[in-house]
Amino acid sequence: MAENAADRDGFRAAVGMPLTVCRLTADLPVVHGRLRRRHEADNDPGSLPWHLERAGRLQQVLDRAGIADFSIDTTRVPLPAVASAVLKAAGWA
After folding, report:
1. What is the DSSP letter of 43?
2. What is the reported pLDDT for 45?
3. Domain count along the chain
4. What is the pLDDT of residues 45-78, one digit of tens each?
5. Cα 55 to Cα 16: distance, rounded to the nearest angstrom
6. Alpha helices in 1-93 (DSSP H)
7. Which InterPro entries match (predicted)?
8. Domain that holds residue 29
9. 17 in a structural domain
10. What per-residue confidence (pLDDT) applies to 40?
């Protein structure tokens, strides 16, 4: 994940071509619910609190960084519609 311009530049250098960066967003309560579901069968119960706390901080970091070419709000959007929106916003569909 790219959290700043240097990260983005590093990824671009690694692949040797221009990048299009899409930021997928969701309201924080939705992100927390998704994280809880993802960690239900986790063998490391201590990791969920870290991820829950990190999610809020990460939103702030990415807001400040402003490195995305575009963002898609996934809060109430089914996965196929998210994929279509990404393709359209990137100019690939």
Report:
1. S
2. 75
3. 1
4. 789 999 999 999 999 999 999 999 999 999 999 9
5. 30
6. 5-15, 28-38, 47-65, 79-90
7. P-loop_NTPase (IPR027417)
8. 5-12+22-90
9. no
10. 86
- pTM for the model stands at 0.85
In a domain, 28, yes or no: yes
Q: Please tell me the distance from the alpha carbon of residue 32 to that of residue 13, in angstroms, as a whole number.
A: 33
Take residue 40 and report the two structure tokens written for it: 């239900």
Q: Which of these, 89, 85, 23, lies nearest to 59 by C-alpha position? A: 23
**How far apart are the two ends of the chain, measured CA to CA in Å?**
24
Strand partners, 74: none
In the numeric block, the tokens 């990824």 are attached to 11
Cα separations (Å) of 78 from 29, 31, 33, 83?
Answer: 17, 14, 15, 9
The answer to whether residue 36 sits within a structural domain is: yes
